[in-house]
Amino acid sequence: MVDRLAQDREVILFDNRGVAGSTGVVPDNVTDMARDALAFIDALGLKEVDILGFSLGGYVAQELTLLRPRLVRRLVLAGTAPQGGPDLHRWSETVFALATADQPTADDLLSLFFSLSQESRAKGAEYLQRIYQRQEGRDAPTDVATRDAQLAAITTWGIPDTSRLNRLAGITQPTLVANGDDDQMMHTKNSHLLAEQLPNAELRIYPDANHGFLDQSPELLADDIVEFLNR
Hints:
Distance between the termini: 19 Å
Number of domains: 1
CATH class: Alpha Beta
Order of helices and strands: HHEHEHHHHEHEHH
Number of strands: 4
Helix content: 40-55%
CATH architecture: 3-Layer(aba) Sandwich
CATH topology: Rossmann fold
CATH superfamily: Alpha/Beta hydrolase fold, catalytic domain
Shape: globular
Largest sheet: 4 strands, parallel
């Protein structure tokens, strides 16, 4: 997906504090993660950017846009949810077990990110092969402390509070909201809620797909994103 996006534009992949290539301690809240991202953008001297945020990254993208509204030109929110949205604060027992395994297996990842259909699982197997193709220059694996800090940020963001939806009125940028039709982690209904509450949003839902819809249909999603950004 990233290669396709990078065919006609510069794409900058960002490792937040304490993750992969970045040093430091992972923040346990979304606002600090957003401020770290802003510091990175400022260090690069960028004055206007398009932002793509997936899952927790979608939380960060929303917060970043609210903190610096004149920085973001267009926004893509993939497999994510608004602050205070429904069914975010406490995942189902199945999702929690899969997402917090100390050493997740391939089956855990397939069950967490892909649907139960044979086609979706086959696409998931292809994804697993892709992510291990490169042998040199790989990101360092995340540790349990990273997982726990990110889980704390996700849990706090998900505390039920419908008043938090009012914040979305501040995101007036054109926004593409995308998700699979059966996201079990962020819940597809939260993508519908984002699209309804954001002043200038459009919604794309991909069939037979769970939270990992962007890994299941990377070319299709990339083409949709490019079309959206090029308007």
